[in-house]
Specification:
It is built from three helices and seven strands, in the order ααβββββββα. The protein has helices at residues 9-17, 27-34, 154-169, and strands at residues 75-83, 85-86, 89-94, 104-105, 117-123, 126-134, 142-145. The strands form two sheets. Strands 2, 3, 4 and 7 form a four-stranded antiparallel β-sheet that branches. A three-stranded mixed β-sheet has the order 1-6-5, with helices on one face.
Length: 170
């Protein structure tokens, strides 16, 4: 039966052996400057009387401590892909870039006013809208059976499944 972390032997030992950092009435004084969410760095001087970690603080100049960089903004990206299906096969191209090397992708396409389907996914700091348009197969596209698809990135595989389901419902 799992035990709570407050009753684990390690927690109880550390509570007995470590001195308390704060006295019961001083936590209210400490909370606003030090314990607020998203504090950039220690805001109290290490030699100040209110610093609770003064006895074991190694920072000689807290203002020089590294500050966590701001979160990068999410960049929207539109990715237009062609869908070409003939006789139970779909046409794909090998991935040209390092991101999905060794995988097969839906061929790139020009934007259209009427996409067949749209799938959204996130990759690192990008929010990608994968939009699919109907197209005629090109000479450098390779046909694969819908029953035996090659390795594909999951957004492209989901797009193929969505198009197949959409065509089966017609």
């Amino acid at each position: 039966m799992p035990t709570s972390s407050a009753s684990s032997p390690g927690f109880l030992t550390s509570r007995k052996t470590s001195p308390p950092l704060l006295e019961k009435d001083s936590s209210i004084k400490l909370h606003p400057p030090c314990c607020r969410k998203k504090a950039d760095a220690c805001t109290l001087p290490p030699d100040g009387p209110a610093c609770p970690v003064k006895a074991f603080c190694r920072a000689t100049n807290p203002s020089l401590l590294p500050v966590k960089p701001a979160k990068k903004t999410i960049t929207p990206v539109e990715d237009w892909r062609a869908v070409s299906m003939r006789k139970g096969c779909i046409f794909l191209v090998p991935s040209p870039g390092p991101t999905w090397k060794g995988l097969w992708l839906l061929p790139p396409s020009e934007p259209s006013s009427e996409p067949l389907a749209e799938i959204s996914y996130a990759i690192t700091r990008y929010k990608v809208r994968l939009r699919l348009v109907d197209a005629e197969p090109q000479q450098d596209w390779q046909a694969f059976s819908l029953q035996n698809l090659p390795p594909m990135p999951s957004p492209h595989r989901r797009a193929v499944k969505a198009i197949v389901a959409q065509k089966n419902n017609l």
